[in-house]
Specification:
- The protein is α/β, with parallel strands linked by helices and 286 residues long.
- It folds into two domains: 51-61 and 154-274, Rossmann fold, CATH 3.40.50.1000; 64-148, no CATH class.
- The protein has helices at 11-15, 63-75, 77-80, 84-103, 114-126, 130-143, 149-152, 157-166, 180-186, 211-220, 234-244, 268-274; strands spanning 51-54, 170-175, 194-197, 227-231, 248-251, 263-265.
- The chain has a six-stranded parallel sheet with strand order 3-2-1-4-5-6, with helices on both faces.
- Helix 4 (84-103) crosses helix 6 and helix 5 packs across helix 6.
- It is globular and about 55 Å long.
């Protein structure tokens, strides 16, 4: 609570989309170290993978650490901005924009200009100027988090990307939000061959629409089954990969349900082991 009784939003509320509930994972040993149980319906490792396409938020870095950092900045906003009313308005617009943008996932045919439409729609519903809202989102969602990115990236990420490249695999990132700035701040942009996001004019659709994944495969000149997609949200990333015809792994979540064909892993190193590129790590470190 701030001095006048206004509650600063959590990072979940202001800077993150709703995250699906996950069931607890059983900690039984498996052929890939300390991975979750391997059920019969979990996907077998594909033999023809020529590229790995990563989601960004929640996949290349866990969301919790960044949320905590940004929540602290938001909580201090009444003091740093010297205006309780101004802080309240920032909180309201950030919460509203993320909620409204999440709703755009329901646009099954995509949107001809997602980058513009998201601000026009959110501005209309929040009763604010779309251009002013865009400037606010640029500051709080795209710029302010950058200073934390190297600190929150997953352990072993840079080394993993280097090893995958040495194996001749192409590496890419497809994210619902612009990713290049965060990748540069994480110090891994040079390892990535292809950076693509939902606001790209050739995509203009949020996952689970498969258009972004298919566009990445097209730019590589590969068939979808030759690209492994790595994400963290089964109902978003797993569903998008299934619709695109891509093999998929989901990191740090629940086990797949019957009829879901992605593979559950706990860390990045287990992806490498599952692909048969290294011997399974009995400790499960990445």
């Amino acid at each position: 609570m701030n001095a006048q009784g206004s509650r600063a939003p959590s990072a979940q509320e202001s800077l993150s989309p709703p995250v699906e509930s996950t069931t607890a994972m059983t900690s039984k040993r498996s052929p890939v170290g300390d991975a979750v149980n391997v059920d019969a319906h979990q996907a077998a490792p594909p033999a023809s993978i020529r590229a790995v396409l990563f989601d960004l938020d929640g996949t290349l870095y866990p969301k919790l650490g960044l949320r905590a950092c940004m929540a602290a900045e938001l909580a201090l906003l009444p003091l740093t901005g010297r205006s309780v009313a101004g802080a309240r308005e920032v909180w309201r617009q950030l919460r509203g924009f993320r909620r409204i943008r999440e709703g755009l996932r329901a646009l099954e045919d995509g949107e001809p200009d997602l980058a513009r439409h998201q601000y026009a729609e959110a501005g209309r519903r929040l009763a604010v100027d779309p251009q002013a809202l865009e400037r606010l989102i640029e500051v709080w969602i795209h710029q302010r988090p950058l200073k934390y990115m190297r600190l929150v990236r997953r352990p072993g990420l840079a080394a993993l990307l280097e090893r995958l490249r040495e194996r001749g695999l192409r590496l890419g990132v497809f994210s619902d939000y612009p990713a290049r700035g965060k990748l540069a701040a994480m110090g891994i942009l040079a390892e990535i061959d292809l950076v693509l996001d939902a606001e790209d004019p050739a995509v203009s659709a949020l996952k689970p629409h498969p258009k972004g994944l298919l566009e990445a495969a097209r730019r590589w000149g590969l068939s979808p089954h030759e690209v492994l997609y790595v994400g963290d949200r089964p109902d978003i990333d797993g569903r998008a990969a299934e619709r695109a015809g891509m093999p998929c792994t989901i990191i740090g979540g629940r086990l797949p349900h019957t009829g879901e064909h992605w593979r559950a892993v706990r860390n990045l190193g287990q992806i490498e082991a599952w692909m048969g590129l290294v011997s399974p790590d009995p400790v499960g470190q990445a």
